[in-house]
Design goal:
By secondary structure, the chain is α+β, with helices and mostly antiparallel strands. The protein is 44% helix and 18% strand. Strands 1-2 form a two-stranded antiparallel sheet. The chain has a two-stranded antiparallel sheet with strand order 3-4. A hairpin with a 4-residue loop joins strand 1 and strand 2. Helix 1 packs across helix 3, helix 2 crosses helix 3 and helix 2 crosses helix 4. The longest helix is centred in the first third of the chain and has 18 residues. The chain starts with a helix and ends in a 6-residue tail after the last strand. The C terminus is likely disordered.
């Protein structure tokens, strides 16, 4: 993966964690990794292994997150099975957490 793709993936991990209400420690435990691996993945560190990134991806996908365009762009979707139709995670560096949620449905959010 290129540096830009690693950075995109890192931002999507941050957004996904925020949506799911997971801390770095939570995600690390679920992926059987150290919390420093989550930090490095979110930073876009080129030294983190593909196996570690795959473990993170698997956990997030099992919890309803879909990576729509791989790491080529920052685009996520939450599967309908979570009961959140129409919800989007927007990566927004101007926001304190770096993410925000948007929906066309006023009852979601």
């Amino acid at each position: 993966m290129k540096l830009e793709e690693r950075k995109n993936l890192g931002k999507m991990i941050i957004g996904s964690r925020a949506f799911l209400g997971l801390t770095k420690v939570d995600l690390a435990k679920m992926a059987h990794l150290g919390h420093d691996s989550i930090t490095r993945a979110e930073y876009g560190d080129l030294a983190i292994s593909v196996n570690s990134l795959s473990a993170i991806q698997k956990v997030l996908e099992e919890n309803g997150i879909e990576f729509l365009d791989g790491a080529r762009s920052i685009s996520l979707k939450v599967r309908e099975k979570r009961g959140l139709v129409g919800l989007a995670i927007v990566i927004d560096p101007t926001m304190p957490l770096g993410t925000r949620f948007t929906s066309k449905d006023p009852n979601i959010g």
